[in-house]
Amino acid sequence: MEELKKLMRQAKEILPYSAGVIDLTGKIIAATDEELLDTTDSSVRAVLTSDDLFASTADRIYYKILIGEQPKYVVYINSNAPDSQVSLKLLSEWIKTALKEKGTDADKIIFIRNVLLDNEIREEIPMTAREFKIDCKIPRLVMVVRTTADKGADALELLQNYYTDEEVASVIAMDETTSIVIVNAQEAYESEDSRNEFIESVSQALDTCLTSEGCEAHVAVGSLVRTFQEISKSYSDAMTALKVSKIFEGDNHISRYDKLGLGRLIYQLPRSLCEMFIDEVFPDEAYKQLDDETKMTIETFFNNDLNGSETSRELFVHRNTLVYRLEKVKLKTGLDLRLFEDAVLFKMATMVRTYIDYLDASNDKMIR
Amino acid sequence: MASLSFQHVYKKYDGGVVAVSDFNLEVADKEFVILVGPSGCGKSTTLRMLAGLEDISEGEIYIDDRLINDVLPKDRDIAMVFQNYALYPHMTVRDNMAFALKLRKMPKAEIDRRVSEAAKILEIEHLLERKPKALSGGQRQRVALGRAIVRDPKVFLMDEPLSNLDAKLRVQMRVEITKLHHRLKTTFVYVTHDQTEAMTMGTRIVVMKDGFIQQVDSPTELYDNPINTFVAGFIGMPPMNFINAVINVEGADVFISFENVTVKLPDRYAVEEVMERDGQEVIFGVRPEAITDEATFVTDHPETAFEADVDVVEMLGAETYLYVTVNGALPLTCRVDPTTSQSQVGQICDLAIDTNRIHIFDKDTEQSIIS
Questions:
Q1: Which of A214, B72, B210, B297 is the 20 to 30 A CA-CA neighbour of A285?
Q2: In chain A, whose CA is at the least distance from the CA of B101?
Q3: Interface contact B137, partner A, CB < 8 A
Q4: In Å, how far is A214's CA from the nearest CA of chain B?
Q5: Residues A87-146 pLDDT 10s
Q6: Is it the case that residue A368 has pLDDT exceeding 60?
């Protein structure tokens, strides 16, 4: 309906006559003269029963738009001038083409969405893709853009403005919070080094674009795939990155599937194994005895590659204070974080602990 | 052009973490204000609340006299440059700069005018048709600034924009941004953890720690009159020496003692706030440049002179850093003049403190005792 109204607004600029589109009940659903909207034209019934595509009354001529063999709309022009029939035919064809294109676009989006969700038979994808002029042989990268529900529409509009050229990327909405960007990744295969550079460049630029326009969003990046048939894998990897980073990476804006590190491993462990590991490393819930200040100190110590001077500088505490805090951790957990092996064990156990907390929270939500 | 006002602003996250506490600040039109502090001090969160990227838990933020708490980010008339700035790789420099204006459906002629003007300011006119891949690091940074300039915003917000650049380029861009501020005459709010950036660029600096403002002052005031040990230690490189010392009052004279060294303080310290601490421990703050090994100064100031073992001598050309130990227990850093310094590693050197440039802090509160 909106599409037809838009077409009529454009027609108003060109046509010297008042024109409009009537549905099969006789209601005017789009018109150059907007005051006529929702009024009824009783002549339409006669037009529809006529065998001819054209029909006329004293001041109006009509043309039936057929989709297949069935009439879909009736287009009219308020004139009986000799050339008005030509104008009406041209207007009708224009509307028909636009509707067909729109239908094609919608079908294309449904097709891409089905490919992403792995709902298409893989062998049939190239044939259908050809119909929609999609080149299956181009490598691609799928990025998932997740926002809050109130910002989903804004994010989608922004992405559609950002990627205006389908040769560069396609943007489709998955639901009210999730948009999908499928990027042409030919450039990524120019050399081995260029893959990482390409992913970094497109994901960071997308994040910059969203943030600059005040749109808070999380960008999850899947893996590079060599053909269109494989975009479901890239999409699935991006969704995994979204989930894993939500558990382990806190407020990072960009999550890359190829940079999930330990998080990816832990995410795949069964709960029973995680619990066994935690009991082994942190007996008597030793981890819970650590206060927030100590946890922050440990995090900074790890971020600085166990470098005491750098850590104390960043935390603005005396080196002795840092040593005292690390001794306290040793006393409570039995792990001396200045030793590489203990530090690794602690880091892994913290992540496993975080994962168990996430599983508990998910269970709580399901029960509620 | 705009003034900013933060009134009792808080940022509290779920789970009780308070990132920003009772933040109060007035920023005048055309000011260049720097938010500085260590990681996790709340400076970026404050900036993001101003940008509208974070909700404000409590308090009010005004741009000019307009309350912006509930104004959408895109309607706040601000432009941001981030640490992880990235140019749009599939667009030319011109399109990168024009993108935000196209989104706002600005007429093409106006877009062209703004892009040309910004390109001229940044001296990147010859790069307009290039893609980001064909630009150097410095050129990319300029384009990122250009993207912000074309918006002609009321306020520029910059969140560690130079962090990803190498040291040389960082110095260059520091100058560029300062020049840009003079030229655009717009309000700038700049976040950094680098005290050198803060000291060299800002007209006013806000030092933050643990979500609280510690001190708001000009660079000179922050350096000369830090309000507490945190600010004193954060501003200045090498950092201020902090010495556990004891105040001794003898008649009208005030002395400060540490590690068998006694230093007579100038008469301006003979005030109630200091005298009442007779026999009490304090933190004695001395900047490295306030300790000298210059022979004439040491001879002329026997009341502040002491000996120390020289552990390390670092020659930096224009200045020399001495790392010394007093009484085998107290390490100190001194910044001395290489043209007069005779100190050598392994030797004992004579040093004296310029007591006109010292600081005394309360041992418990760590606040400066006299301002």
A1: B210
A2: A213
A3: no
A4: 5
A5: 899 999 888 888 877 766 788 889 999 999 999 988 889 999 988 889 999 999 999 999
A6: no
